[in-house]
Design goal:
435 residues
Length: 435
Amino acid sequence: MDTGPRSGKKRLRTVATAQNKRNKGKGKISYEDSISAMATAFMSGYDSSDDDDDVVLLVCVMDSVIRKIRRQSRVPKHVSSFSGHEKMCELITGHEGLLLEHIRMNRDCFHRLVTLFTVQNRLQEMHTLTVQEQLMMFLTMVAHGDSNRRTSYEWKHSGETVSRYIDTISSHLVQLANRFIVPPDFADVSTVIADNRRFFPYFQGCVGAIDGTHIPCVVDADVAAAYRNRKGFTSQNVMAVVDFEMKFTYLVAGWEGSCHDARVLNIATSNPAFMFPHAPEGKYYLVDAGYKNKPGFLAPFRGQNYHLHDRRREDGDRRKEMFNYQHASLRNVIKRTFGVWKNRFRILRGIPRHPLEKQRDIVIACAVLHNFIKLFSSEEAAFNPEDDVVDYGNAEDDVGEASTQQQQQQQRDESNDMGHIRDHIANAMWNDRLD
């Protein structure tokens, strides 16, 4: 019996071809049946006296046929007839509320963003992706916190394409931060203060509020300890300054979650590289009790309650409690801003696994988009938290992980210039109440 390589190869080809014809007649190519047929052909032609080279050749022929069958039976990953471009067109031309739900901005605001990126040549038209689709894909991802895989499926593009454009757009938005995250006008008094008798004239020197917030992040095990905050999860500490129109006027991101808010502020204000917008003489930012009461930063009285029901009690310094209550009411703008920001961009509730630099860029990019929407889109009520929810509490609660030395230093600051300003405001409030 002829068991040479030629006859073995011929027998494999004949049996596999016959099996494929039977399968095609059924309307499909069965991968399992073809493998079974080739195995049968191989075993029927095998003889123990065959040379090893003949056996190797037969195995190679089998492998070649298997690879060919795999290619023929491969199922495309993106088989939907509804492409990403068609999805974009449907959103743009469809109901305004649906567009707002998907990308967190109305149609006019989106067109302004497209124009900004097009005129400055920040994004280029590609044969598979228009500038509009690139931006809408990015906005959908940050608005809903979608992963790269989910975005790839929704927009019918490869994961590599999605990742590349997410990197590109977030980098360009970071470059636009100097244009859209700008210091406040220190000469003006906000209408939120000027039009409210609770705040004017007491806080007429106030130009904004400062606080930190934690954005969950994914880090490598060797740096996890530094990024683990006091609540037990890894995060980056983001310090922000906001005005009373709920726009960011300064933001620094990427700090380790274990870093205290006061330390972040001290470094940002003392290092010129961070370009912190220092308030001029007579102006100041509102801060919580975790920060020092020093020139340019007005903190509440430490150790004084400012719950509404606590203020009605007889014990305690009613003058200081009243100041703390009004101070917290005005400073609450930064809590509400963080709430709107994280509600609008769900990715801030848990950024998917990316390099730390990219996670930081996404945070800054979302802040730029937040200010852009505040400037050019009036339809944002769906993402506002409850306006009447105020973050009142005991002034001691905001201290967090401040060291004993920091607390003692803060108590010594009672005699500085901001201590006198705070006493003056508290006395004026109390005297006006009695009048």
